[in-house]
């Protein structure tokens, strides 16, 4: 579900603009408040929801089921370091989920410019930059040829 901004809560800090991987959170030049310029292009990653200090961003239910009476609300609690989601179904049932806003401290992830440039050899690899160490694993999982089976029909 794409996001939208409660303009009365937004203070125009721009954190959502900086973090949005789809570059669709923009600051309105007249109101100086953020808005999602293209909900259809939203990755639904909710990075903006997690980054907003004003709790001003919420998820918009899809038009095919939102009118049927469900709701999804999100609450970011900076002091607790948590983000919680409340789903309410149209038959009245409710589900609540709570998780850390993030699992690493703010500013603890090095920027690419802090790291050694990749070697010539690394450019020939299928691994992305800083994999697998950045994933906290020794090796990326991969299928071996004996795990691939041809199914004849
Ligand atoms: Fe951008 Fe992700 Fe927020 Fe969508 S959910 S507006 S892609 S940061
Ligand atoms: Fe507004 Fe929140 Fe975006 Fe800051 S992060 S500009 S308060 S919506």
Total discrete domains: 2
Backbone structural class:
mainly beta
**Low-confidence residue ranges:** none
CATH architecture of the largest domain: 2-Layer Sandwich
Strand content: 15-25%
What is the first-to-last residue Cα distance?
39 Å
**Spatial extent as radius of gyration:** 21 Å
Mean pLDDT figure = 87
Extended strand count: 7
- In CATH, the topology of the largest domain is named Alpha-Beta Plaits
Would you mind describing this structure in some detail?
This protein is mostly beta strands. It has two domains: 3-100, Alpha-Beta Plaits; 112-147, no CATH class. The protein has three helices and seven strands. The chain has helices at 15-19, 47-51, 120-123, and strands at 3-5, 25-27, 34-36, 57-59, 71-77, 82-88, 94-100. The strands form three sheets. Strands 5-6-7 form a three-stranded antiparallel sheet, with no helix packed on it. A hairpin with a 4-residue loop joins strand 5 (71-77) and strand 6 (82-88). The model has no long low-confidence stretch (mean pLDDT 87). Bound molecules: iron/sulfur cluster (2 copies). One iron/sulfur cluster is lined by residues 5, 10-16, 34, 51-52, 54, 56-57. One iron/sulfur cluster (SF4) binds next to helix 1.
């Amino acid at each position: 579900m794409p996001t939208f901004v409660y303009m009365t809560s937004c203070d125009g800090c721009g954190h959502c603009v900086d973090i949005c991987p789809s570059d669709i959170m923009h600051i309105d030049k007249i109101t100086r408040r953020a808005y999602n310029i293209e909900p259809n292009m939203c990755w639904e990653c909710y990075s903006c929801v997690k980054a907003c200090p004003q709790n001003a961003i919420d998820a918009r239910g899809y038009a095919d089921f939102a009118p049927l009476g469900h709701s999804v609300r999100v609450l970011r609690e900076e002091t607790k370091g948590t983000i919680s989601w409340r789903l309410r179904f149209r038959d009245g049932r409710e589900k609540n989920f709570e998780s850390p806003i993030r699992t690493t401290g703010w500013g603890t992830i090095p920027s690419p410019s802090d790291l050694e440039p990749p070697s010539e050899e690394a450019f020939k690899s299928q691994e992305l930059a800083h994999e697998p160490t950045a994933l906290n694993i020794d090796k990326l999982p991969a299928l071996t040829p004996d795990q691939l089976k041809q199914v004849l029909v």
